[in-house]
């Protein structure tokens, strides 16, 4: 099977093309520190060609979900070191998704600090906080003079990820968080060097990528984008042109991979961004969203993409590559435990052998 064949991604050799998509699971301990439970969760999934660990805060004061981990304190780095050691001991490879939530953050989780964004446009929805569901807040507009601090925050996070033993990092440029808020014109109405044209809107993401490449080398850096996903109230007037520009610029930088979410969670926005990325990005193209193993196999066989990241399927099937190989049925994900604390629905999904042995 193409899905189970090896592939060189940047400077890394992956044994298969069944990758684990980044999944926020809100299991971090006090201080946003990853603990033993998180280490067990990822080590259980070490047969993935590549594990892409969940969205992780690059700097303090930008929490968007209670229980999301950070990578800006020494305690967090020490926690992640346990995770990478466990994954490596199990024979796996793991990248960290580095993330700034921008306007998706809330002051209730950040000592009263107002969230920041490219423009003063709030997400028209509610957010879960320790005080319950509340409306998203109006963000404070980041001044151009503050942008270098954001870039420096991502650089520092990459240095910390390296110290923590990660094999590389994925820059979170998707799903309506800060870098995506700058890229798309529904959330970026600014003028000056970071607003207006596509070149200006993509500037922050590209500056961040350059800084992170300076830490890890291009062969250990990936970028995730979701040009048509309307999640977090996002919209863009020309996602195809945006994808074309971003793909070709990232291609010129020689990064290991571009990770493209091909569709919209809510089916409102459309556009064949995958083909555009394929035509303009020369490195590894990872596709995601709604793939079954069969469709993924066909997409790789046809040359449309190089690898596929599985989200909910990997969440519920720690041994996903083995199940694909055996053409075995997949466990169904339990949505009620996606963001709930504890081991239930996190580290207790059975492998194929455990399923065969019957319920625990
Ligand atoms: C519980 C959950 C948490 C997620 N967390 C993240 C995340 O931290 N970063 C990210 O880029 N996408 C995140 N996503 C999106 C997934 O990476 C993926 O795009 C989505 O599940 C669609 O892929 P699938 O159809 O294979 O599940 C999350 C999705 C789910 C269901």
Which SSEs are present, and which pair or pack?
Elements: E1 7-9, E2 12-14, E3 18-20, H1 36-44, E4 51-57, H2 74-89, E5 94-99, E6 116-117, E7 126-129, E8 132-135, E9 140-141, H3 147-163, E10 168-173, H4 178-183, H5 198-201, H6 203-216, E11 221-225, H7 239-253, E12 257-261, H8 273-280, E13 284-288, H9 293-301, E14 307-310, H10 312-316, H11 320-325, H12 352-356
Helix pairs in contact: 1-2, 3-6, 7-8
The structure holds flavin mononucleotide (FMN).
Shape: globular
Radius of gyration: 19 Å
Give a quick account of the main beta sheet: strands, pairing sense, barrel closure: 8 strands, parallel
CATH structural class: Alpha Beta
The H-and-E topology, N to C, reads as EEEHEHEEEEEHEHHHEHEHEHEHHH
- The CATH topology label is TIM Barrel
Strand order of the largest sheet: 3-14-13-12-11-10-5-4
Number of helical stretches of at least 4 residues: 12
Mean pLDDT: 97
- Structure summary, number of beta strands: 14
| CA distance, first residue to last residue | 32 Å
The portion of residues forming beta strands comes to 15-25%
Contiguous low-pLDDT stretches (5 residues minimum) are none
The CATH superfamily bears the name Aldolase class I
Number of domains: 1
Give helix % range: 25-40%
Q: Structural class of the helices, strands and pairings?
A: alpha/beta
Which ions, cofactors or small ligands are bound in this entry?
flavin mononucleotide
- Give the name of the CATH architecture: Alpha-Beta Barrel
């Amino acid at each position: 099977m193409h899905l189970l064949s090896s592939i060189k991604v940047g400077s890394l050799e992956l044994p298969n093309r069944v990758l684990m998509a980044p999944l926020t699971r809100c299991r971090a301990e006090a201080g946003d520190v990853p603990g033993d439970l998180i280490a067990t969760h990822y080590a259980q999934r070490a047969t993935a060609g590549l594990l892409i660990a969940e969205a992780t805060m690059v700097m303090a004061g930008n929490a968007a979900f209670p229980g999301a981990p950070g990578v800006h304190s020494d305690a967090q780095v020490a926690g992640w070191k346990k995770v990478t050691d466990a994954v490596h001991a199990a024979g796996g490879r793991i990248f960290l998704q580095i993330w700034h939530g921008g306007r998706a953050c809330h002051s209730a989780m950040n000592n009263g600090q107002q969230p920041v964004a490219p423009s003063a446009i709030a997400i028209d929805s509610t957010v879960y906080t320790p005080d319950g569901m509340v409306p998203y807040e109006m963000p404070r507009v980041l001044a151009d003079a503050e942008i270098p601090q954001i870039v420096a925050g991502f650089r520092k996070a990459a240095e910390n990820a390296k110290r923590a033993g990660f094999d590389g990092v994925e820059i979170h440029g998707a799903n309506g968080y800060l870098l995506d808020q700058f890229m798309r014109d529904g959330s970026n109405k600014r003028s000056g060097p970071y607003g207006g044209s596509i070149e200006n809107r993509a500037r922050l993401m590209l500056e961040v990528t350059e800084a992170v490449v300076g830490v890890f080398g291009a062969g250990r850096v990936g970028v995730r984008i979701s040009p048509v996903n309307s999640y977090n109230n996002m919209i863009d007037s020309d996602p195809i042109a945006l994808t074309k520009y971003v793909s070709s610029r990232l291609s010129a930088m020689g990064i290991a991979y571009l990770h493209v979410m091909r569709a919209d969670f809510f089916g409102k926005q459309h556009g064949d961004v995958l083909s555009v990325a394929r035509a303009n990005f020369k490195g590894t193209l990872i596709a995601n969203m709604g793939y079954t193993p069969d469709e993924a196999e066909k997409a790789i066989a046809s040359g449309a993409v190089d690898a596929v990241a599985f989200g909910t399927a990997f969440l519920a099937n720690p041994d996903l590559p083995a199940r694909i190989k055996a053409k075995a049925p997949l466990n169904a994900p339990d949505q009620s435990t996606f963001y709930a604390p504890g081991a239930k629905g996190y580290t207790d999904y059975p492998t194929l052998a455990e399923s065969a042995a019957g319920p625990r």
